[in-house]
Amino acid sequence: MKFVKHGIVALMLGSFAVGAHAETWKTIQNFNVWSMSNASNLTIRVTGIPIENPESCSDADSYMVQSSIAESGQDRIYSTLLAAAVSGKPVHISLSGCESNRPRITNVVIGKGTGPW
User: Fold this and answer.
1) Which end of the chain is more exposed for a tag (fewer CB within 10 A), N or C?
2) pLDDT for 114
3) Where in the chain are the domains?
């Protein structure tokens, strides 16, 4: 019975790991923020540096903000990116998985800080 319980737990944990994506942090500067009123996605185009593509997304010409984040979270990401773009400051982006076949942004940070970047 112990073996069956441990086997079931191992299978459950393994199924969670299959869907998980590693988080990669990248610092970007000199970028454009594209927000179209008829689209649910926010596109970030970077100039002067290659696009980081840790998940081998098929269209690595820009970054996309994760659309499954609550709208208020997307608004905060947009505001942070806009503030960085206007001030000319670099921004740190967290990438995990793909969104519309492009690397997906899940978090953004302005500033030096002590984060993983």
Assistant:
1) N
2) 62
3) 23-110
